[in-house]
Amino acid sequence: MAGSITAAPMTSSLSSIQSLNGLFAIYKRQGPTSADVLNALKEALLREAGVRNPNPRKRKKQSLKMGHGGTLDSAASGVLVVGVGNGTKMLSTMLAGSKKYVAVGELGKATDTLDASGSVILEKDFEHITRLDFEEKMKAFTGNIMQVPPLYSALKKDGQRLSVLLKKGHKVEAKPARPVTVYSLTLQEFKPPLFTLGIECGGGFYVRSLVDDLGKALSSCAHVKELIRTKQGQFTLEEHALHEEQWRLEHVLRSLQPCQESAQGVHCAEQPSDTSGTHSRLQQDPK
What we know:
This protein is an alpha+beta fold. The protein has seven helices and 15 strands. It has helices at residues 14-18, 34-48, 91-96, 131-138, 162-167, 207-217, 249-255; strands spanning 22-28, 66-69, 77-84, 99-107, 109-111, 120-123, 143-147, 156-157, 160-161, 178-191, 194-201, 222-232, 235-236, 257-262, 265-268. The strands form three sheets. Strands 1, 2, 3, 4, 7, 10, 11, 12, 13, 14 and 15 form an eleven-stranded mixed sheet that branches.
């Protein structure tokens, strides 16, 4: 149209990406590990900056100081908080903060990994379980509770992840029960053998262990069929998580929660920047 002004697309340079300091959230899809997703994000940003054959795993001048807070299992999807520059020093806060999940579980089958990625190791009847039974047993899993982490996890022994040791054929002992906090636990849907839970919990909590424990408490067994993290800290899946097609500097800048370093330490803004219009679609609702 005559007289119209077209905004020039934002260009990216390596220095502009390396100068970022703060926190933002991306969407991790089901399948890859959290580390794989982070490396794919780095690669996308480096490629946009014109770096030829970017290899985010190599520590060179082209590298980005970037990390994630709170590992999501390969089979899980949802919000993954990313720290860049000084923001990486705030990721421990993300580990300890509140998280929300939607989990679809399946009664009657237990797996070695406690989710659908593993092998079925036990099958039990579940026809005796009613919704009332389920909701009654859930009461024991809210508040401050003790929980044994799953064997297949990112927890380490002698510097190696338990899941890696198990896959190599090593014998691994379960970690001792530890205190965790469940702020809320709701049964959103109950259609045996499937059920859907809404969970808000603190740091160090494993949804897979919860579902496994619930199955045992109901004189049956269960495993996680689908798991989505919908919130981590103040970052939500719907409002803040950047999808793969949005892994560009302009979108990162819009959603970045800036962090500044001072003599007192690193401090971040209380709320993420407004990302309205940055991404309107949400992944399929699991309910």
